[in-house]
Amino acid sequence: MRKLRLCRRNLCKKSENVRDPVYSWQRPCGQHTDINIYNHSMRGKVPLVLVNPQMVTWYTCGPTVYDSTHLGHASTYVKVDIIQRILRDYFKYNLVTAMNITDVDDKIIKRSRETGQNWQELAQSYETEFNRDMQLLNVKPPNLRAHVSTNITTIQRFIEQLLAEQKAYVAEDESVYFDVAACTNYGKLQKISKDEPKEPQEYKRNAADFALWKAKKAADEPSWKSSWGGDGRPGWHIECSAIAGMFFGGKLDFHAGGLDLRFPHHENEEAQCCAHYNTKQWVNYWMHTGQLYVAGAQQKMSKSLGNTITLAEFFKKYTADEFRMACLLSNYRNAMQYSDEMMQTARQTLRKFINFNADLHAYMQLQKPLKFLDEGALEAQLKYMVTEFDNSLRDDFDTSRALSVLLDQMSSISRCINDQNVDAEQQPARCLHLLLAAGNFINASMYNLGIKHMSTAEAQREALATNAQSVVNVDVLVADILQIRGKLREQASVNGTKNLELLRICDQLRNILVRNGVEVRDHKQGSSWVYQDRSKSVSHSG
């Protein structure tokens, strides 16, 4: 094992020595983890080095909330959740995660016009649906979450600094563009040249320049005033840079998203932040997940192509655990060819784990004849399983190989305990503690990977729950109620006068939440809430 890890380090060092001097990845200074991660620009694996192992930062590109979540989105967020769980729950790193919610966007404006629904209400409804879908998929919510519409000031300050340092410019139409000519290492993620000939575009100095701020063009567009004179809204790329920077500053350990975001979105994010923070490398590790395809199709699953499968449709046939198992079997960087055959393989694999649990439990409850087992062989197998499982996850989070290690161990144990040939002269059974140790490790590993139900009864309950239409995410429901209450509080104090009736309604909403165990804390800029300490008395005033 020691030699294997030394070889990995040498291979990583060798790959770094032949790197392109213009687009080179810079190894961070910090604690080596003995984990290797694939780096697209290096076209190979590089060592994971944590600047501060006591706090590991992670930002994920969030959803643009203009439509329902489909299975392509689900694959990205489930794969990201798997890697985060490995780092947090298996390797025990203190992972701090953040995500943006794009609630101002061309697609949202277009859908608002098509439906006649207010853009804010439309975005809020789809965000609520997204949160519920993530809960059904057992995707842990981020520690930090920020909406574009409520962080316009942060985004504008980011743009103002780029303008002040002449790394961006205001065009004739009062839009603001990033000047790629001022970025010495633009194109490092995709290995493209900013000097490649392209068709010139109106208002831009260079064809590769991209919008930081889009000037308002129609009366019904949401817009905000700016210090450079043009009313408008943020561009797509700047929102993630500004929000991630607001949370984590000028250095980020991990940044995740689908492979289709590597260019132009992530490329432009990196360029903006390198310019803003005056650094050569903003993100140390870009995590790009493979895309989901419908089997036989040449293009990814996307709304624009009309080849999507909604989660509501998916849950009519399969469970969240089965989909997660499919993701685990494919590994995070691999494309997935979605089909019933793929899902049946995932279902059968999950069933092997459930059946193993049932068999081991029956054996320990003396429902199967106890066998004399070779203690030395079992100890060697247990050590091999733990070591190889660990090696697999350290090798670019290779969950497919990690599962095969567990499956091999389960198969070996199952053959022993299910063998019906019992010799009457056989010595008394022993090694039950080793069997339990193996079972505990397998179960803990599956839970750490996000498989929620490891028994037949639990799996049946999950199937019922995901098909039910009444699943309620309490956190999202309380947040929505407080958002409405916040709007009422604002309206109750317009122009220096107080509307006592609206304030009374706000008090009633707060008291209803208190009676149901939610403590509301009002602040100058909105409200927060916590679950009540049940050891304390609760007022039930009306």
UniProtKB/TrEMBL annotation:
Please verify whether the record's keywords include Aminoacyl-tRNA synthetase.
yes
This protein's GO cellular component annotations are: cytoplasm
Molecular function as annotated in GO = ATP binding; cysteine-tRNA ligase activity; metal ion binding
Q: Broadest EC class?
A: ligase
The UniProt entry, under SUPFAM superfamilies, shows:
Anticodon-binding domain of a subclass of class I aminoacyl-tRNA synthetases, Nucleotidylyl transferase
Q: Which UniProt keywords apply?
A: Aminoacyl-tRNA synthetase, ATP-binding, Ligase, Metal-binding, Nucleotide-binding, Protein biosynthesis, Zinc
Q: Which residues form the tRNA synthetases class I catalytic domain?
A: 51-347
The yes or no answer to whether the keyword Phosphoprotein is present is no
Q: Tell me its EC number(s), please.
A: 6.1.1.16
Q: Which InterPro entries match?
A: Cys-tRNA-ligase (IPR015803), Cys-tRNA/MSH_ligase (IPR024909), Rossmann-like_a/b/a_fold (IPR014729), tRNA-synt_1_cat_dom (IPR032678), tRNAsynth_Ia_anticodon-bd (IPR009080)
In which family does this protein belong, per the annotation?
A: Belongs to the class-I aminoacyl-tRNA synthetase family.
What function is annotated for this protein?
A: Mitochondrial cysteine-specific aminoacyl-tRNA synthetase that catalyzes the ATP-dependent ligation of cysteine to tRNA(Cys).
**What is this protein's record name?**
cysteine--tRNA ligase
Q: Source species, please? A: Drosophila rubida
